[in-house]
Amino acid sequence: MSTSSRSLLKVIVLGDCGVGKTSLVNQYVYKKFREQYKATIGADFVTKEVEVDEKVVTLQLLQIWDTAGQERFHSLGVAFYRGADCCVLVYDVNAPKSFETLQHWHEEFIKQAGLTEPEKFPFILMGNKADLESEERNDETISEKRAREWCTSKGNIPYFITSAKEDYNVGAAFLCAAKLALANEDENSFWQVLEEEMPSHIHLQRIPESVSGIEQQKGGCAC
Fold first, then answer.
1. What pLDDT sits at residue 41?
2. How many Cβ atoms from other residues are within 10 Å of residue 32's Cβ?
3. pTM
């Protein structure tokens, strides 16, 4: 593959602490999972090279931690969001609050990224921790219907039920993100791919490859 066909795509991963952002990224990149992660203020990033439609694509997956109420970090949001090619929103299917705050994350990204036509920008929604749904199902579990209605209200953005622990739909969701980011270079192809996929004082840290295997630990913040 010639270097001229390579693309660097910046994918922002947003969502509340504990929804499984780090778990999803590590499962996708390293095929490893652990229950407990140490939350960090700022951002974490990792890269993965994939092939999409005969083109080598390097995904730069950047996770943003919630810095609400911390003014010195909040002002740096523009630097993180600008230049993004896709935004992945994540919530925990068993945590209603994490679903309710999706509106905040969606609006914050649009504002900080300076999007003038947000309806044309590639967003993807992941409802994570599906492996716990059957074990801990209750009236508070976010239904797939409710999530899809939210996606419809935001311009029919793609929606994936995922499990970072069981590696369910993780690869498919990030591959969709890569395809939409590439297709966004051309408005017509963007909507075609979308239709197909629907059925300093800041701490910037690269996620280490030496992530241990599955650990049966409880607690912590699996962001």
1. 55
2. 15
3. 0.77
